[in-house]
């Protein structure tokens, strides 16, 4: 009798634990119906045979020394099979080569049928109303209002010779070559063929016109991948603008025509230029996106990507008219710091990248912590990107979208169970995270 009672107790406990780990079914069903705004992604443009899309990221990871993917992002993740079933009616429960061949045939058939509408078709399958596309430039199939442009502006911070910075790692050797090319492209687009001789001319003739052109061409925000290139510490809040400007002017004028700038002087110039860009972005109504937390490449400087390093930027009174979004929410060891930074009136965060970097349950714990601080500041994001033919951006998009929605449902379920929020409030927060917070941030509310 005692054994039977103990066994029954164990079974009841296991059932209770299992139920506690899952999302409330009704809440999850409601969340799955919400049309989302994806705050961060890298969708590829449609290309012709033999054509390559080299503009889905200013600093693409593919050419770097390979690193081992996390468990969630490995090809054997069963969520990818679920995606194949949902998107292309994949009839199998494995990824055998002959079955994957059928998958690719089914996908190609949809692409041919949809033509230039294929990217919109993908968003329809994912339940995404609008996707913010981080790209050097938009392209075929990526058109508003479904796709909104977020260009990269790190190149504007590095107008001098970067050979010293390139020598820090093989990754940065490649990345700075990309930034140099991108700066030349931006200068050409604003009809400046040679580097201006003075800092004032550089900011007036290159930086401001570039930002204004990006805005005119449809940009809704700008992005910095600075953590791949340097620390996110942009120095203290300048106590005296005149002194700060003099230091930057000296560094620029000394080395604009050649020579390798000393690290400290070049850093001071970058710090000044960033604040100039951020102020101009605020004037133009363009939120500034920042990569925070872990990044690709085996040489990535994790310590330099800590969002806390942005404290002086976020505390700068001259930048309070600029809105900042902490992309990836400090993915990795820094997620809890982000919750406190959301206290600042012009700071937001999304959980993109974490949607494919960590499992759904771990993501739900991150989301819950943020929601228990400032639910009005939390944004949904996928960080989908081009990949292999069988696990391309559409499949990654399905996996990240569903993981993000399920994690959100799990977080809200736990908050309801702990009597922190009502069911009505949980549904309201779900709409905020998936859509309304971003709509308000970008001025898309009616």
What are the salient characteristics of this protein?
single chain; 446 residues; alpha/beta; five-stranded parallel beta sheet; 16 helices; disordered N terminus
Structure report:
- The chain has one domain: Metal-dependent hydrolases (TIM Barrel, Alpha-Beta Barrel), CATH 3.20.20.
- Residues 1-20 have low confidence and may be disordered.
- It has helices at residues 2-21, 25-33, 78-88, 97-114, 118-126, 163-166, 170-189, 199-216, 241-255, 263-284, 311-314, 335-341, 354-357, 360-371, 393-417, 423-441; strands spanning 36-41, 128-134, 147-150, 222-224, 288-293, 324-331, 347-350, 378-379.
- The chain starts with a helix and ends in a 5-residue tail after the last helix.
- Helix 11 (311-314) links the parallel strand 5 (288-293) and strand 6.
- Helices cover 49% and strands 9% of the residues.
- It has a five-stranded parallel sheet with strand order 4-5-6-7-8.
- The chain contains 16 helices and eight strands.
- It is globular and about 65 Å long.
- Helix 3 packs across helix 15 and helix 14 (360-371) packs across helix 15.
- It is an alpha/beta fold.
